[in-house]
Amino acid sequence: MTSAEQPPPYAATGTDSSAPPAPALKKIRISHLQQLKDNGGRFAMLTAYDQYAAGIFDEAGIEVLLVGDSAANNVMGHATTLPITMDEMIVFARSVTAGASHALVVCDLPFGSYEVSPAQAVESSVRLMKEGLVHAVKMEGGRHYVEHVRALTAAGIPVMAHVGFTPQAEHALGGYKVQGRGEAGAAVVRDAVALADAGAFCVLMEMVPADVAAEVDAAVSVPTIGIGAGNATTGQVLVWQDMAGLRGGKQPRFVKAFADLRTELSRAAKAYADEVRSGSFPGPEHSF
C-alpha cells in the first residue's frame, strides 16, 4: 500500500453490528506519531482535565491528550493560564491518566516551573511524570530554551515544544495576537528547528500564519501540531470545551464546535429542575 494508505496505530471501535469487529485500541507512543509524520498521516489532540472526558476521548481514538495549563481558564475560572500551580497540574494530570488507557498523555509545565534553569525544568518534569503519571511534558518558548530541552531529553523525559503565540507570555506579547507575520515568520521557523534539533519529539504552533506553519512542518523531521496554524501540520489540537461547544461567548477564529453541549447541558439541567419542583422526580422507579 502507499504511504497515504498506511493504517493508523489504533482503530476506533465501530458501531455497525454488521461490520467485522474493529481491532482493539493500542497504546499510542511517540514512535507512532513519528510514523504518521513520515507516512503523511495525521493525528488528533484534545485537552482533558478529568477522568470522564479523558476516557471518552480515549475510546474515540484521540491519539494525544493534553493536560493543559488552560485548566486555569477552562476549569478554575482564571483570566489567564498564569495562576495555576504545579500541585494543581499534578491533580489534573492524575485525573486524566486515570481515565486514559490508550492515548499519549502530555502535560504542560506551568508558568514558573521551568524558566529559571534546565535543572528546574527537569525537577518539575520529574514530578509531573512520577506524581501525575504523564508520558511527556510540553514547554512554551523558543530558542532560549534549547538547553532546557536537551536536559530534559537527557533525563529521559519526552518534550513537546510550543512556539508562536505562547499564552504564558501573553503580557510580554501584548495580548492574544498572531505571531510570525511577515519577516517575523523566520524567527518562528528558527525557534522550531532549534528545539527539534535539541531533542523535542514534536513542535506545537499556536496562532501563526498557515504558510509559516507549513514552512516549519517542512523544516523539521518531527511531527508538528497546529492550533490556529492552518492544516499543513501533522496534528491538530483544540481545547475540548471549545471543540464540543460548551463555552459561551465569542470564539477564536480557529475554533470549530463539533457539538452544542452548552445548549444540551442547559436543557438537561432545566428539565431536572422542573421535575424536582413538580415532584415527578424521583419517581417510584428511582426509590428504594
Automatic annotation (TrEMBL):
GO BP, one annotated term: methylation
Biased composition (Pro residues): 1-10
CDD domains membership: KPHMT-like
The enzyme's E.C. designation: 2.1.2.11
Required cofactor(s): Mg(2+)
Compartments, record wording: Cytoplasm
Reactions catalysed: (6R)-5,10-methylene-5,6,7,8-tetrahydrofolate + 3-methyl-2-oxobutanoate + H2O = 2-dehydropantoate + (6S)-5,6,7,8-tetrahydrofolate
Residue ranges, annotated region (Disordered): 1-21
Residues where 3-methyl-2-oxobutanoate binds: D69, S70, D108, K138
Cofactor, how bound (note): Binds 1 Mg(2+) ion per subunit.
Pathway: Cofactor biosynthesis; (R)-pantothenate biosynthesis; (R)-pantoate from 3-methyl-2-oxobutanoate: step 1/2
Superkingdom field: Bacteria
GO cellular component annotations of the record: cytoplasm
Residue positions of the active site: E206
Keyword annotations from UniProtKB, A to Z: Cytoplasm, Magnesium, Metal-binding, Methyltransferase, Pantothenate biosynthesis, Transferase
Residues that bind Mg(2+): D69, D108, E140
GO molecular function: 3-methyl-2-oxobutanoate hydroxymethyltransferase activity; magnesium ion binding; methyltransferase activity
Family: Belongs to the PanB family.
Cited PANTHER family: 3-METHYL-2-OXOBUTANOATE HYDROXYMETHYLTRANSFERASE (PTHR20881:SF0)
Function: Catalyzes the reversible reaction in which hydroxymethyl group from 5,10-methylenetetrahydrofolate is transferred onto alpha-ketoisovalerate to form ketopantoate.
Cited NCBIfam families: panB, PRK00311.1
Subunit composition and interactions: Homodecamer; pentamer of dimers.
Protein name as catalogued: 3-methyl-2-oxobutanoate hydroxymethyltransferase
Highest classification ranks of the organism: Bacteria, Bacillati, Actinomycetota, Actinomycetes, Micrococcales
Gene: panB
